[in-house]
Design brief:
The complex is a heterodimer of chains A (about 350) and B (about 350). Chain A is built from 11 helices and 11 strands. Chain A is α+β, with helices and mostly antiparallel strands and about 350 residues long. Chain B has helices at about 5-20, 25-35, 40-50, 65-70, 90-105, 105-110, 115-125, 130-135, 150-165, 225-235, 240, 285-290, 310-320, 335-345, and strands at about 25, 65, 75, 75-80, 140-145, 165-170, 180-190, 195-200, 205-210, 215-225, 275-280, 295, 300-305, 325-330.
């Protein structure tokens, strides 16, 4: 009998057991006739669709399901599980190492990454006999925010070396444009997720913030169509996103913005009369507005213009950006929008 | 949330492989090993009992000793060939290796020799357990936990946590006020873009989180930390409390933040409620601000309803994120931010 199955996992498990045990590759017809859950398919199309999807799921989960041509046509294609590739190589993990794996599994807020890691840990737990898991990382609760729905297609594209296209919203203008890249790396830094790759239209490496990808990531059909560099300077690439990293000259009200001051560098560059970090400058170069009167002028390095502009705008009048111009403008843009908040009432 | 069938399938395969190698095990030990309830293991066994080889006759199915199970002991009697642990899939290897590398490189692990060693050795053991293709793919994902705060502060905190000693902190809170405080440190928590110290704060007389990049100075004192107070700080619910704090300029200190009831027990009622409607481009805000409610609109915009614990926090949020904001309700809640912005623009020479 090939009775009904109660769940998808039951059907998938029956397929794994059947393919594992079969000495010869199983044809689609054979699978449909004998494996529980496939006989229910109401039509050839429904069966084909179901089987295609299950095949992909099993491969994604690490099951080495291979297609074997039998020299004939169509239905003569068979499927089997490569027994040599099926098993996890022997691995020995100490209770401490098992504990580290558990912490790693809790790192992701992202459901896809969290699921992928949890399954890896489940498999590893089945391969070790150690019964106690020491939590040597007790007291650490690291978390990384969700990457979102573009993570999985981008990772597939990188591992298969396929070019991708997507609609991307520019940070500066908010305009959406079609972008085409050869993705190299997916990167998370300071709460943001990025894809780094070669921008085919602009002819140079670029970083793209995943949250600004609008809609789906489309993968080219062709595989192995490029070779990512073996080393990618992630921090250099990210500086391209939303402006250059640099140093800002800030005029700060006395006693204010200590968190910003704490990151200040030696302020010799701030102009004459600067005694040291955080000290007041009498009438320094203020761009002609006199905003530095009574304020401390400090030099603070930053790596992301967007993040830094958010932070500085939050201080309102307590912190004024003197340079660079792009940071100054980014803060003014935020303030302009904030000033209008009350106007838009009603 | 219902479990994904992928996750359950992998546990089913892993259960059989483990039982085949390890022999009879109790429901409780299996539940502990696979991080589920004993009831779930029992349900898994009921499913496994129905699976097996085509034909699905009596001898074709995965089988367990039924008597033993009634006594709470799981004894596999026929694995139907599922005797080997399954190798890691490419995506699984990529995610696990990236998580371990991020842990190894995080300041809180790197600063502690024992933690650094166990994390490194776990990575090394794993490198032998994945195939070439997955190893190559693992380069594709590169995540880093926060590397914020200055090294001197981190060194002092790590030493104080390990030595259970009281710390003297100079701290600047979200309202931009600097204070000196004595704290008994419990642990260092890295959450995405930021690292926090969980500690009992003597100034606030309760457990608090302190953002590392807001700790201006930290000195280890000779006074031992109070065990009971450290224990209380250890019980701070990290994920809940910190979920909303990264990317905002707030620290979860005494000038607080917006917060759902769960993170500030008993303080939720009576707080001002504000609803902010954001454009769809600011989607990440919905994931990082602790909202009481989130309402999605068909055009991609979304409305966050917040309980405002501290006015300075709201003012900062509005000033920083104003370009993404469509509306604030009640509108008066935006007045402090709007006034501050106008004052600042005047200093820039813009009216």
């Amino acid at each position: 009998m090939t009775g009904a199955v109660e769940s998808r996992e039951e059907r998938l498990l029956d397929l794994v057991i059947a393919l594992n045990a079969s000495r010869r590759p199983m044809t689609r017809a054979h699978i449909r006739r004998t494996v529980a859950g496939y006989g229910d398919a109401p039509s050839d199309e429904a069966f084909a669709k179901l089987f295609e999807r299950d095949k992909q799921v099993l491969r994604d989960l690490g099951v080495p399901l291979v297609t074997v041509g039998t020299g004939g046509y169509g239905d003569d294609i068979g499927y089997r599980i490569d027994a040599d590739a099926y098993a996890l190589p022997p691995i020995r993990l100490s209770p401490g190492e098992m504990g580290v794996l558990s912490v790693a599994a809790r790192l992701w807020s992202d459901t896809v990454l969290g699921g992928d890691t949890a399954r890896a840990v489940t498999k590893l737990r089945s391969a070790t006999r150690v019964n106690s898991f020491d939590d040597m990382l007790a007291g650490l609760s690291p978390r990384i925010s969700a990457a979102g729905p573009t993570y999985q297609p981008l990772l597939d594209a990188i591992t298969q070396r396929r070019r991708v296209s997507f609609n991307y919203r520019a940070a500066s203008t908010g305009e959406v444009a079609r972008r085409r890249i050869e993705p190299w790396r997916i990167v998370a830094r300071r709460g943001g997720w990025y894809a780094i790759g070669y921008d085919c239209d602009r002819g140079q490496p670029r970083a793209f913030r995943l949250s600004r990808i609008d809609g789906e990531v489309d993968l080219d059909a062709a595989r192995n169509s490029y070779q990512p560099p073996s080393h990618v300077d992630v921090d250099a690439a990210l500086a391209l996103d939303g402006g250059q990293e640099g140093q800002a000259q800030l005029a700060i009200m006395p006693e204010r913005a200590s968190a910003v001051r704490a990151r200040a560098v030696d302020t010799d560059a701030a102009g004459d009369g600067v005694a040291g970090s955080g000290d007041a400058v009498e009438g320094g170069d203020t761009g002609g507005n006199g905003v530095a009167d009574g304020r401390d002028v400090v030099i603070v390095p930053f790596t992301s213009l967007t993040v830094f502009a958010d932070e500085l705008a939050a201080y309102g009048p307590a912190v004024i950006v003197m340079s660079p111009d792009d940071l100054r403008q980014a803060v003014i843009d935020r303030l302009t929008a904030a000033a209008a908040l009350e106007v838009t009432r009603g | 949330m219902a479990e994904l069938s992928e996750d359950r399938l992998i546990r089913l395969i892993s259960l059989v492989a483990y039982l085949d190698a390890a022999g009879p095990s109790t429901l409780d030990t299996l539940a502990h090993r696979f991080d589920v309830t004993p009831g779930q293991i029992r349900a898994d066994i009921d499913l496994l009992w129905c699976t097996g080889l085509p034909g699905y006759g009596f001898d074709d199915l995965i089988d367990f000793d039924a008597w033993a199970i009634d006594a709470g002991l799981v004894k596999l009697t026929d694995a139907q060939g599922l005797t080997r642990p399954l190798r890691l899939g490419t995506r699984e290897a990529v995610a696990l290796l990236a998580a371990l590398r991020a842990l190894a490189a995080s300041p809180a692990v790197a600063a502690d020799p024992d933690r650094a060693e166990v994390t490194r050795s776990a990575l090394k053991a794993l490198a032998h357990a994945i195939d070439q293709a997955a190893g190559d793919a693992a380069q594709a994902l590169d995540v880093a936990l926060a590397n914020d705060g200055n090294a001197q502060v981190l060194t002092a905190l790590t030493a104080a946590v390990a030595g259970r000693q009281r710390l003297q902190l100079r701290y600047v809170n979200a309202a931009d006020q600097v204070s000196e405080r004595n704290v008994d440190p419990a642990r260092i928590v890295t959450h995405d873009g930021a690292t926090y110290l969980a500690a009992w704060c003597y100034r606030a007389a309760e457990p608090r989180f302190f953002r590392l990049d807001r700790i201006l100075d930290a000195q280890v004192t000779a006074t031992p930390a109070d065990r009971n107070r450290v224990a209380e700080a250890e019980n701070l619910d990290t994920v809940e409390a910190l979920a909303g704090l990264q990317n905002s300029s707030a620290g979860n200190d005494d000038t607080g933040s917006a917060s759902p009831d769960s993170t500030s027990p008993g303080s939720g009622d009576g707080l001002p409620v504000v609803t902010i409607t954001f454009a769809g481009t600011a989607r990440w805000i919905a994931e990082t601000v602790p909202a009481v409610a989130v309402h999605d609109r068909p055009d991609g915009a979304f409305a966050l309803t917040l309980r405002v614990v501290e006015a300075a926090w709201l003012r900062s949020l509005l000033l920083a994120q104003a370009p993404h904001i469509i509306a604030v309700e009640p509108p008066d809640a935006a007045r402090p931010a709007s006034d501050a912005a106008q004052e600042a623009l005047a200093l820039y020479g813009i009216e």
